[in-house]
Fold each of these.
Amino acid sequence: MYNFERAAAVLHAENISNRKPPGFPFDDTDPYKVLEGASYALAVQPDPKLQRYLDKLIAQIASAQEADGYLYTARTIDPQHPHPWSGKERWVEEENQSHELYDAGHLFEAAVAHYQATGETNLLNVAIKEADLLCKVFGPGTNQLHIWPGHEIVEMGLAKLYRVTDDPRYLGLAKYFIDVRGSYPGGDDYHQSRIPPVDQAEAIGHAVRAGYLYSGMADIAALTGDTNYLSAIDRIWDNCVGKKLYITGGIGARHDGEAFGDNYELPNLTAYNETCAAVANVFWNERLFLLHGDAKYVDVLERTLYNGLLAGVSLDGTRFFYPNPLESDGNYERSPWFGCACCPGNITRFLPSVPGYFYAQKEDNIYVNLFAGGVAGIKLNDGRDIKLTQKTGYPWDGKVKITVAPDKISEFTIAVRIPGWAREEPVPSDLYGFVKTNSKPVTLKVNGRDVPIKLDKGYVRLDRVWRLGDLIELNLPMPVQQVVASDKVVADRGRVALQRGPVVFCAEWPDNPDGKVRNLKLSSDQSFDVAFEPSLLNGVESISGKSVEFSKNSDGVLVKTEQPFKAIPYFAWANRGQGEMVVWFTNAGITTPISMAGQ
């Protein structure tokens, strides 16, 4: 906030002693992200003290906005000597590293969240003022700038502004920013700008930028009906989920460029998997679900949410991961902050928004997408109010009870998602498969009566007249499953991962003999014990069993020995100090997975 204070002082012709620019030109987004997250929190639980504090921050931000709407403290603090990345004039370095439009995008996202949560327009007015400036500066006109944003997100922000204002200029500018990308020579894969996005078929370049671009394309496809956009993001999604997705839902294999790797390039020890990329992956899959109404996108979203994303923050909320590897030799630990602090802010804005992902509504259809104890109020298009109350121990327990309370006896549809992992499908592609089938079937009941599991895009549709107190009971069996990767993933050949329900597990040094876990071997036919341990890592389930070792005795005969091992949820690792960790175990004899047979 000190940056906004100094920028405001300059605009009010006050003398300031420190005109040093912010550490990064995107530091303005840190407060925007916190404001967005706090707004989501207010939407769930009103808090007058928090709202007053936000109003104070918003006033400080507004005071740093220039008369024409430009808001970018990296330049305003000292226009003659801005941040080195900013360029000597506005926008001249936007395609490189100025992040002017990136800052604006996060402002728009925060402003819409705040307006929707509170009904107040103080931050929304700041956003509209800057959006109006962008509509004048950028576009296809002869007196406008024809450049693409260096770091995508303004496209998503403009789409949100359009939704709350109905100003078609914002939607048009969002589409223009996507259409101009890759439309002239000089682009590259890092910025997804080598060719136009609608012509792309592979997830490429900087993974966070890519995820935000694909999310923005989904927004435009939904709002305009542009089939070229829809075809492109479907192709790119198929590539990502089929060839570039980690078992944890993480994306972006390479440290170099924080980027996607080649197809099937999924290393474990050197995996990058930036936390921000996991957030972007959730955004992308949520939008594709809203476009298609298909549960396969929620399957990927859930996998990312419970594993690759949640690992980005410590259990006490004070330390963060930037990269999220799937194996550690003891050199990884979370940090309380980063000079480039995008990931803590993204965690801060995302986690309070999670309640918004549980249900969806279209006309008289209610979609149950995620499972956790809680109460939701849903309004159908004709004004009917429906209250749903979930009771469950998910993700540790697959039993879910949903009590339905309509404001009046009426007919509508509740579509209950049957997760892919409960249908022998770890991900909606042949990238991963389970070694064995689950012998226990999924069951669904309404008021005690069995309902056939007839799937429509991954949902069981319950079309009926609903009354107060009607009860839906879903039972998702949760055996420990061994997962294998496609043989094309070189890093995972001859290895298995452990999953129970939506949660991926890992072995970590404090729980295993001698603190060594990278040499653990599991057999395909072994059994596992599962136990909830309330005193372990704030209360988690653990998996225990025997690891296998093969060695030659004094006579040169190969001898099999066993030793105990324990695995914990991947999201909870690195909360007890530095040491070894592994997700993919060496397999002592792999069986062809049932869901990948014939691959």
Amino acid sequence: MKHKLLDIARRVLILLLVVWTVVSLVTILIELVPGDPATAILGDAATPEALEQFRRKHGLDRPAFFFSYAEGEGLRWNGAENRYVDYWRLILRGDMGNSFRTDRPVRELILSRYGATIQLAIAALLVAVSIAVPLGVVAGTNRGNLLDNALSVVALVGISLPSFVVGPLLIYVFAVWLGWLSPSGRFGWSSIILPAITLGAALSALLTRMVRSSVIEEMGEDYVRTARAKGLNERTVVYKHVLKNGLIPVVTILGLQLGVLLAGAIITEKIFNWPGLGLLLVEEGINKRDYRLVQGCVLVISVTYILANTLTDLLYRRLDPRIRVS
């Protein structure tokens, strides 16, 4: 019990440390970007009074950090009265602030897109696993022959093709030419098929190679020879014994890739006009200098990424009893 409590405390501390580090780095980077958010949002035609009112409303008239630098004055200590401390005070109260552009709560904007991002990420993972596991097992159990070489070439091609090539190609074939699926938007089950395949294709190619390597490695273990000596058929040996142990490194990659899918699906979301968190971060946050929205999106993505990796660790322990014992 004591070890479990210490493990939980350690994970919570790591979560808090990572979130603080990521959000702090993003805050520093967006503050270093040249330009005035007030001018970027209100436009060059805005009056000085309107600009000053905007800065005062959103706290942009206050120092960004604990210290600032000005030519002729050098470093100047600002104390705790700065935007960085103000933001964390809001976070501790469960408030992410309001968007600079729309004045809507950032939490509301993120929640309106978060479901679409999770849906696309999970669908892409399912596509990747559905393709990678059967192909990887077939390639691993047929090591060195023509089928293995053919599947290796297919996997290499899948890794090499970027999403901005696969996406438009799928749209042309299945939406324009055949007319089977929706080309863009989020209007039903059919609209997620093409973006999920686009996002999951490269991941499936990577996972296929990993499953193949794991199966080849496990096939030479003693327990496989023992299972065969007991008279078990090859299918049972492969799918009940070899695959369970061979999936352990694959599960680790899946946990890491979930975070990549959450933050790196921007190109796919753009191609298919998918209303996800990545598109919100880039188009409404970074491009329009909406600091609060950028901070909120990064905070949610980082927390989701850490939680996904925590679940991966738990599943990893489930698959490998040696980790539970240690």
